[in-house]
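To the wet lab folks,

You asked to see what we're planning to order before we commit. Fair enough. Below is the target structure as tokens, and below that is the sequence we designed to fit it. If anything looks off to you, flag it before the synthesis order goes out.
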């Protein structure tokens, strides 16, 4: 006491000055603490009324702790409609895509998609829609359930604790066999809280083994990944441990990775485990290269099915939302799937992520206008302009592919040999992969407009090249041509004899 008393006089001025600084510092610290606590509150404002763990796949249980997220999650059962998105009406099942666009049906001949292929709808339906599709009239693999059920506990059980090992057992099971195990273990729920959140911390995470394998192959490649900076960072390190999205990825990246567990191109059959084809990169061409380099167990080149009319070995594309988004301006600017499809909403003092995952066009105010200052009508018009152009190109692509198929059919009719037809069928494979890529992608071009247009332009070009190649083999065409062209007449010797 006495020591400080003596010093007091000398240091009063100094103390006076520092105290202002100190008080200010304390105030700033208090404010920061307050903000950070409020942020935490905003993120996790509930005291838990029940404990949840890794095996709790029933969202209702989690709903007791996080009722606001659960309430919005349940709304995915409500049907919605936009011009190109969602699913409207009150019919039991969404509209048939293959009836609306007959070229889709013909393009899928020889494959289960020509039997039944409908509009997607909300997450609440994913398990029942999969169980009920008439594509199930053909044998389907257990791999299907990776993206339609909350099945991680089942994978762990099948793999004695190792989820990847468990998944690798399921492609050789039938859909029905695995489905029964899932139901018997009580995990017959659509995508659930535990699939995207760590039950201890509620941190976002990815769980799906096929995503892990796919993203690790992507990281290990040297493909440019401008929209995933954490992979570049990992590449600069010692690479001893494989890239692990749950520890290496940024929070922003996780807000897209959570969706990339399912909204991707894949192989899902009995020949090999569920595969995301990312070993060469995430562009359409990289994926095509991956499949072209893949062999089936019999050693032959990979294909999903043989086209029933033409015999071409076809690659079927599946909803590559994650891959196409990666090529767009939003991804490059760090705008994540969740920014548009799960925007924040204010609920009292806290910010809650809207778990009613749906078309952002039903919600432009919260989905787009947080960043864009234009009016709602203007934002809608911009999207519509992109989608309309994409739609028209897509229809032209469909028409071009049908012309290719017609030309091949008549070439066959006029006696062209399989060897002669082969080049046209290779062009069909390329054209159809590109067309299907954009048809199966669910944003009608929005996620990366220029990339989508490029892919459709290539599709149309390949289809017309294939058509031209087949037409050269067509007898009627030949009789005309053979007068004019020695090249054609040589190709047409078979036909002109008729
Ligand atoms: C910048 C905003 C934005 C981002 C980021 C974004 N999307 Fe979209 N998405 C849209 C818009 C706009 C549509 C078109 C909706 C429509 O036609 O009604 C759409 C459509 C979709 C659809 C079809 C929706 C429906 O109602 O049929 C799916 C599925 C989808 N996106 C998934 C994703 C995934 C997965 C990601 C991330 C990999 C993503 N989106 C990133 C804006 C975005
Ligand atoms: C476990 C797999 C899985 C995950 C993870 C997943 N989805 Fe889906 N999503 C699906 C399936 C399957 C459907 C189609 C359901 C149906 O039609 O029955 C779907 C449908 C959708 C639709 C269409 C909704 C509508 O009303 O038409 C949108 C939009 C969508 N998902 C966006 C996302 C976004 C954004 C994320 C990440 C936050 C995400 N999904 C995560 C599997 C998944
Ligand atoms: C990699 C994840 C994944 C796998 C594996 C998967 N799906 Fe899906 N499925 C999705 C997503 C995402 C959607 C929603 C987007 C769409 O419909 O294009 C969807 C939509 C559907 C739909 C509703 C629309 C339609 O196509 O009629 C059905 C039915 C369906 N899947 C059945 C299956 C079957 C059968 C299998 C196995 C052959 C399967 N799915 C495998 C992710 C997957
Ligand atoms: C398809 C993935 C997905 C599923 C399934 C999912 N969430 Fe989320 N959840 C997210 C994303 C993305 C965020 C935003 C997180 C962030 O940016 O940190 C989020 C955020 C949250 C948060 C943090 C606060 C907030 O609202 O931002 C809570 C709590 C939460 N979710 C609870 C749940 C519950 C409860 C369920 C099941 C009923 C659930 N989530 C299902 C993806 C998912
Ligand atoms: C988190 C911020 C953010 C959100 C949310 C967002 N955007 Fe964007 N948007 C951007 C940025 C950044 C760009 C690129 C601007 C630039 O670099 O010039 C962009 C570009 C665009 C473009 C030009 C696209 C192109 O490919 O050339 C359109 C159109 C667009 N946004 C529409 C939308 C719509 C519609 C939504 C809601 C569904 C939306 N945005 C949501 C940030 C956002």
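Sequence we intend to order:
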């Amino acid at each position: 006491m006495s020591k400080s008393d003596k010093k007091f006089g000398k240091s009063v001025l100094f103390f006076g000055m520092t105290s202002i600084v100190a008080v200010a510092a304390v105030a700033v610290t208090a404010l920061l603490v307050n903000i950070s606590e409020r942020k935490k509150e905003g993120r996790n404002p509930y005291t838990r009324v029940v404990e949840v763990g890794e095996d709790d796949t029933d969202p209702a249980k989690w709903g007791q702790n996080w009722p606001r997220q659960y309430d919005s999650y349940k709304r995915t059962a409500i049907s919605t409609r936009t011009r190109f998105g969602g699913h409207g009406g009150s019919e039991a099942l969404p509209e048939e895509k293959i009836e609306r666009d007959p070229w889709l049906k013909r393009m899928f001949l020889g494959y289960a998609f020509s039997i039944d292929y409908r509009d997607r709808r909300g997450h609440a339906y994913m398990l029942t829609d999969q169980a009920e599709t008439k594509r199930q009239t053909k044998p389907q693999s257990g791999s299907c359930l990776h993206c339609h059920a909350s099945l991680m506990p089942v994978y762990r059980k099948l793999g004695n604790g190792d989820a990847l090992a468990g998944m690798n057992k399921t492609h050789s099971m039938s859909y029905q066999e695995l489905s029964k195990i899932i139901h018997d273990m009580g995990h017959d729920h659509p995508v659930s809280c535990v699939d995207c959140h760590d039950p201890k911390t509620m941190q976002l995470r990815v769980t799906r083994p096929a995503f892990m394998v796919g993203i690790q192959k992507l990281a290990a490649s040297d493909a440019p990944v401008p929209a995933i900076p954490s992979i570049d960072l990992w590449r600069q390190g010692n690479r001893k441990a494989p890239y692990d999205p749950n520890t290496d990825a940024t929070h922003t990246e996780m807000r897209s990775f959570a969706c990339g567990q399912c909204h991707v191109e894949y192989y899902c059959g009995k020949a090999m485990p569920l595969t995301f084809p990312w070993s060469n990169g995430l562009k359409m061409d990289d994926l095509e290269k991956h499949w072209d380099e893949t062999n089936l167990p019999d050693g032959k080149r990979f294909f999903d099915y043989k086209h029933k009319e033409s015999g071409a070995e076809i690659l079927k594309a599946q909803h590559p939302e994650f891959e196409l988004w990666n090529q767009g301006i939003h991804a490059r600017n760090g705008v994540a799937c969740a920014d548009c499809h799960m925007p924040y909403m204010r609920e009292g003092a806290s910010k809650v992520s809207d778990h009613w995952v749906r078309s952002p066009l039903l919600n432009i105010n919260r989905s787009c206008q947080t960043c864009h200052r234009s009016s709602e009508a203007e934002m809608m018009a911009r999207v519509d302009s992109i989608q309309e152009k994409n739609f028209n190109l897509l229809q032209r692509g469909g028409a071009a592919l049908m012309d290719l198929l017609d030309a091949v059919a008549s070439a066959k009719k006029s006696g062209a040999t399989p060897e002669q037809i082969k080049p046209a069928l290779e062009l069909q494979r390329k054209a159809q992969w590109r067309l299907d890529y954009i048809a199966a992608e669910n944003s009608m071009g929005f996620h990366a407009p220029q990339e989508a247009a490029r892919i459709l332009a290539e599709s149309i070009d390949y289809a017309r090249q294939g058509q031209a190649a087949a037409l050269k083999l067509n007898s009627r065409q030949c009789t005309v041509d053979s007068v004019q062209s020695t090249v054609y007449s040589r190709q047409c010797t078979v036909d002109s004899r008729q």
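Structural context that might help your review: The first helix runs from residue 2 to 43. Residues 59-363 form a domain with the Flavocytochrome C3; Chain A, domain 2 fold (CATH 1.10.1130.10).

Thanks,
Computational group
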